[in-house]
Structure formats: structure tokens, C-alpha cells
Amino acid sequence: MSGKIEARLAELGITLPVPAVPVANYVPYAVTGNLVYTSGQVPVADGAVAWKGKLGAERSIEDGVASARLCALNCIAQLKAACGGDLDRVKRIVKVVIFVSSAAGFNDQPKVGNGASDVLVEIFGDAGKHARSAVGVNELPLDVTTEVEIVAEIA
User: Fold this and answer.
1) 135, 100 in Cβ contact below 8 A?
2) Contact status, residue 154 vs residue 83, Cβ threshold 8 Å
3) Which intervals hold domain Endoribonuclease L-PSP/chorismate mutase-like (predicted)?
């Protein structure tokens, strides 16, 4: 489908990844009423993990920002699937949670989280502005740098 959001993606030069299939006993998204909850999405591109390691150790803040951005794009791909391919159904991004694999003493999780937040606003405009948590964790699956989940309101 092509609509306002698809046109915006094209304008930004963004191609959404193919939505990842679950690797365990969960669904990639759940719809209840007018809300879509994505499962946590990791920085996978073309079937391979793009970013591994801990922020504040072997990975920089810039790496974390790029990783969080990719995670958010993977969330949008799941959101698109939940909307039957029509991202114009997204009324707003309500909440974003960013998990950041962090070395001891690393406390710039909000800066890393901006990678996800910024791309959501770039794509959805004011409807992309959201409540957010950016949380440092000791480990993430597959040794990824970040994991992002989104709650969105849809029409």
C-alpha cells in the first residue's frame, strides 16, 4: 500500500526491514482494542545481528544510536504488519521502551534511546512523539546492543 507514511519513508530513503519471525513462544505483536504492542525487536538486518556488545565497553554511544534506530525500524515493520500493511492507520506512537546493554558505569541510555525516538518522529511527525523509558541492562539476547518495543494507537 502507498499512503502518507509510505511517501514519508520514501522521502527519507528508508526501506523497512522484513518483519522478523518469532524465535520462541511469543507473537511479534499483539493487538487489543486500538492498541498494538510490539514484542521487543533487536538490531537485525537481512537476517543477521547488526550490532553486538555493551555500550560503554566495546560499543560507542553512536553505535548504540544506530542500533536503537534499526530496532525501531524493525518495530515499525511489525506495526505495519499489524495494520494490514497500512501505516496510515497509526494514529500515534504512545510508548517506547529501549533496553541498552550497558557496561558498569554507563549511564547514557537516554542518548542511545534517541536513535529510536528520533526516527519515529522523522517518520510519523507529531504522531511519533511518545512517552519513553530507556533502561540499562546487563545482558540482552544474542549479545545485542539494544532492544526496543513500541505501543501504538491505531485507527
Assistant:
1) yes
2) yes
3) 6-153
